[in-house]
Amino acid sequence: MTDTTTTSAAAGTPELTEQERAEDLDMAQLKQLVGLVEYDESKDPFPVTGWDAIVFVVGNATQTAHYYQSAWGMELIAYSGPEHGNRDHKAFVLKSGSIRFVVKGAVAPDSPLIEHHAKHGDGVVDISLEVPDVDKCIEQARRAGATVVQEPENVTDEHGTVRIAAIVTYGETRHTLVQRTVDGATYDGPYLPGYVPRESGFVKREGAPKRLFQALDHIVGNVELGKMDQWVGFYNRVMGFVNMAEFVGEDIATEYSALMSKVVANGNHRVKFPLNEPAIAKKRSQIDEYLDFYQGPGAQHLALATGDILRTVDELRKEGVEFLSTPDSYYEDPELRARIGEVRVPIEELQKRGILVDRDEDGYLLQIFTRPLGDRPTVFFEIIERHGSLGFGIGNFKALFESIEREQDKRGNL
Ligand SMILES: [Fe+2]
Fold first, then answer.
1. Which residues contact 146 (CB under 8 A, 6 or more apart)?
2. Residue ranges of domains in the chain, CATH in brackets
């Protein structure tokens, strides 16, 4: 696949974020894990440092927080709820490597989260981004016609001050922009003002690794038929994101379903957003199914980066996490095998686990997809291990979609 990145990789060495530094990640690792690149931030009208947090609304945050610890090896670090003056909802903050998840569930019977959850089910409500200058971003967003739903404001507690604003993106999803250094002082609380540090009594199984994933690689957004280019344009125009790769309908089509996908990324490529729309095919595509059950556009999958996908998948399976199966024919197809070439482990080890391989001119990647995380066939996770490739697994899409369609058929939605 061709990388059609239009940025110049000139000046500007990317710096580690606070979260990355705190987790002992280094630049070489991040280049490998998520394909980080150098770029000149000073020319960016909407500079983005990286992910700040992914905020989920769920039916039961108390239990979901336990699931992310027990199954996904995440660490509980902060909390906000009625005990601390937030009477509306409970919010648990979990981290793994450089990424934070926040899971929110309604407490008050009239919480707006109830309506959101009734409509969408469990899902991502906020893809929150860390930025060095909130006001600069909001000025640019407004100039480019974005909807600002929260004006820049300072929020303070005993740990310091953060400056926050928010804009809307596809569906009922928003991007909260978080500036963690204000007037030279960096906020040092566990997450945001209003949250208190929280530990958990949960103890990992003996021998379990410190963490199962180190970073977030990309988040895919599903949008309606005919709307993909509009959202690509939004990220180009409003947020200065660049086009990374371009797929067309035929590339990602099976006999039954088809979709189109384009990928945009921020300057340093920490934040990557593939955007999908359904394409016309014999039957309803998996994107149509998502749009029906999520009741509109939303985040479809989050790709979690690991340096050892075999171990990560083995550990997740031990905890009962379920993955999509891959047909044996995928590994035995001579054409595919030739294209895959040499990878760091024997193909048999991948086949045993159903891990997919894709290769392009820059290298290869290993990936696997979970079943939907909640009750609705909507949001799921991908586990990804990159070896030079900056792609998203286009060569796997057909194999993957056939596998997804088998599942879709079982649910009676094909
Ligand atoms: Fe993906």
1. 167, 168, 234, 238
2. 43-197 (3.10.180.10), 215-410 (3.10.180.10)
